[in-house]
Amino acid sequence: MTAVLDPDRFFDSDPAVRRIARDLYEETRRLPIVSPTVTWIRDPGPGRALPEPAALMVQPDHYILRLLYAHGVSLESLGIPRRDGAPVETDPCKVWQRFVDHYYLFRGTPTGAWLDYELHEVFGIDERLSSQAGPRIYDEITEKLASPEFRPRALFERFAIEALATTDKASDPLQHHQAIRDSGGRDA
User: For position 44, what pLDDT does the model report?
Assistant: First the structure.
């Protein structure tokens, strides 16, 4: 099944309002991004690759984890470490498959809209995420993440990120910000 993302999917259905929304979007879509997080670009040195898809997209996303957990998927089965050190799933392909087996839960949610956009626009995936397509999509994303175009610094430039902010705790030492600054990157 081919994924089709209607370019007006987030705009009002009223034609007059939609026309204004399109105009505003076209005027702002190429502006630089001020990112609210620094975790995806923790780049202690040039050339560092991002992790595989489960570690990049599933495990750090509290919206994904909360929805899956609320529907009976254990955090251990998603590879989330336990406080007591008991074993958890360590195979990223199994974590990814568990996520895609439950992808229907994200239909109609902001997280689902973001994931569909990310898969289509960032990774160029034209197939809907499903149990059957999951392994192929995992492999395709993994291959792209290994390429120079998907290194953190290349993505930083691709998305014209102008500043990085933080949603860390006030007591956080912000070592990731410092690592970016020390390696010649931009920081908030």
Answer: 42
